[in-house]
């Protein structure tokens, strides 16, 4: 259903394809990117609060929601290019980019490709920070999984399964924190074209062993860009250990772990999420991109990797997971 008033869905043609998005509020621009199989509606719980202080843009990425679903480039880099094109058409010079799950990977890629357009980066239960991912997601990349997915997403099954998943989420039982998000993705796969694109996107980032695309080797560049990581301690899609790893990989980043949230902390604890994001943007100066400084940093390479090579240690150790209490660390724009 199309939202009304300031939350109405707008559409614009980019490269001949209709791109859907909502845009509301006034002030510094926040760009919110959804996860695979989702759309802008995943952000609706937090948009009204955020729009009090910011211009909020939440697009449906190509192949998702009300945007067109052409045969196209659905790689992480392709999505990052699509974000750049949308901002160009809307005449927006720079944004704080907020990415959830797949959208987090796109946000990191966008910041890497277009640092001059990026004020800050916020990663929410983000992909691209390690190999681990739920085994069910890995299985969907195997040969024959397309036929299986078509069979299990028939209308009759969806009409029974979606309400069941929602009830499981509401039950609060162990391992049910992400059932509402799973229901949203599962319901979107009733359309054949959506299933094709879902598997295309998935196979560009994941195989049977786990995540393929990571930004670990380039994460040190975040020392030149303010960043925040938000994760749910009960995430069963991408484990919370990735949040602690990200906090170490992104120098100076701020880490927030929501103990009562799963893979969608913005939906599980919207008020707290909006408050954390608002405070971060208000308290952290936007980065000022210096092309020479950026180039010199790339030439110099990752200082942590250089240190490990000097010690003869090429392993990466994930930090020990803390308890379920919220975790914070300092964030400064360097």
Key terms for this structure?
globular, two-stranded antiparallel sheet, single chain, 334 residues, alpha/beta, eight-stranded mixed sheet
How are the SSEs ordered, and which strands pair?
Layout: E1 10-14, E2 17-25, E3 29-33, H1 47-50, E4 55-59, H2 76-89, E5 95-100, H3 102-113, E6 118-124, H4 135-139, H5 145-152, H6 155-171, H7 179-188, H8 192-205, E7 206-207, E8 210-211, E9 227-232, H9 241-249, E10 254-258, H10 265-268, H11 270-283, H12 291-300, H13 303-311
Parallel strand pairs: 3-4, 3-5, 5-6, 6-9, 9-10
Antiparallel strand pairs: 1-2, 2-4, 7-8
Helix pairs in contact: 2-3, 6-7
Question: What would you note in describing this structure?
Answer:
The structure is a single chain. With 334 residues, this protein is an alpha/beta fold. It is 39% helix and 16% strand. The chain has helices spanning 47-50, 76-89, 102-113, 135-139, 145-152, 155-171, 179-188, 192-205, 241-249, 265-268, 270-283, 291-300, 303-311; strands at residues 10-14, 17-25, 29-33, 55-59, 95-100, 118-124, 206-207, 210-211, 227-232, 254-258. The strands form two sheets. It has an eight-stranded mixed beta sheet with strand order 1-2-4-3-5-6-9-10, with helices on both faces. A two-stranded antiparallel sheet has the order 7-8. Helix 1 links the parallel strand 3 and strand 4. The longest helix has 17 residues, at 155-171. Residues 306-311 and 313-334 have low confidence and may be disordered.
């Amino acid at each position: 259903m199309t939202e009304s008033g300031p939350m109405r869905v707008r559409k614009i043609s980019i490269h001949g394809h209709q791109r859907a998005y909502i845009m509301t509020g006034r002030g510094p621009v926040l760009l919110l990117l959804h996860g695979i199989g989702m759309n802008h509606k995943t952000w609706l719980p937090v948009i009204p609060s955020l729009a009090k202080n910011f211009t909020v843009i939440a697009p449906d990425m190509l192949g998702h929601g009300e945007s067109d679903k052409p045969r196209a480039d659905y790689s992480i880099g392709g999505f990052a290019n699509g974000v750049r094109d949308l901002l160009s058409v809307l005449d927006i010079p720079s944004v704080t980019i907020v990415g959830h799950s797949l959208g987090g990977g796109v946000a990191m890629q966008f910041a890497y490709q277009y640092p001059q357009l990026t004020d800050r980066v916020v990663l929410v239960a983000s992909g691209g920070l390690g190999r681990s991912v739920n085994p069910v997601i890995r299985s969907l990349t195997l040969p024959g999984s397309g036929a299986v997915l078509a069979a299990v997403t028939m209308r009759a099954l969806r009409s029974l399964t979606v309400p069941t998943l929602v009830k499981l989420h509401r039950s609060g039982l162990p391992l049910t924190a992400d059932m509402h998000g799973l229901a949203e993705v599962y319901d979107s796969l009733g359309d054949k074209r959506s299933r094709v694109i879902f598997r295309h996107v998935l196979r560009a980032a994941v195989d049977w062993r786990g995540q393929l695309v990571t930004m670990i080797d380039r994460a040190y560049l975040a020392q030149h860009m303010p960043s925040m990581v938000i994760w749910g301690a009960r995430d069963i899609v991408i484990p919370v250990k990735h949040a602690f790893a990200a906090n170490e990989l992104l120098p100076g980043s701020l880490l927030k772990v929501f103990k009562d949230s799963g893979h969608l902390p913005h939906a599980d604890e919207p008020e707290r999420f909006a408050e954390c994001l608002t405070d971060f943007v208000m308290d952290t100066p936007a980065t000022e991109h210096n092309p020479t400084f950026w180039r010199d940093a790339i030439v110099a390479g990752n200082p942590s990797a250089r240190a490990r090579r000097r010690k003869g240690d090429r392993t990466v150790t994930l930090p020990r997971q803390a308890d379920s209490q919220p975790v914070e660390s300092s964030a400064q724009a360097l």
